[in-house]
Give the backbone structure.
Amino acid sequence: MASGGLQLLGFVLAFLGWIGTIISTAMPQWKMASYAGDNIVTAQALYEGLWMSCAMQSTGQIQCKVYDSLLKLESSLQATRALMVASILLGLVAVFVAVTGMKCMKCMEDDQVKKMRMAVFGGVIFIISGLAALVATSWYGNRVARAFYDPFTPVNTRFEFGSALFIGWAAASLAILGGSFLCCSCPRRETSYPPTRGYPKNASSTGKDYV
């Protein structure tokens, strides 16, 4: 029962991490403009994401523009896109694999060994998915930090971490943690020893003498 609860907890955490990865990938707030000085700007906030850039006016109106050409984007941004999409696809595969191996499901009940292996395999895929998202968000965040502290970067073009980055870091951590729980949820096999054979008991004497 304890392993079943750990397995369910791991699946819930990993599934929440996968949902968070999807949300983080779709959000445009991967980095937000950092205003410094006394310059007057018309936009209240500027955001840039993996797919579009947005500007929120002081009136509350938000205008977004999708990036025109894929080939004009920086190679690092294209790699970040690829890692996040790969993380989402791996998470989708992990969901189906892990559900098949869950103890509360009736699939593959006739072979418990294969069922446990499916749960562990799903946990491994969740961990890989979380690592891909973690690499993508950390890489992007490192680029934002380096550009912010670069003295040659103009003040009006400096960006800070956006909310999508923090959601991505949290989602990657949940996916890795949940996948680890899935991998550790299977009970260990107990070593089976052959049954000990007792020595035959001495036959009780019947008091009869055989000739």
User: Anything to note?
Assistant: The mean pLDDT is 81. Residues 112-149 form the longest helix (38 residues).
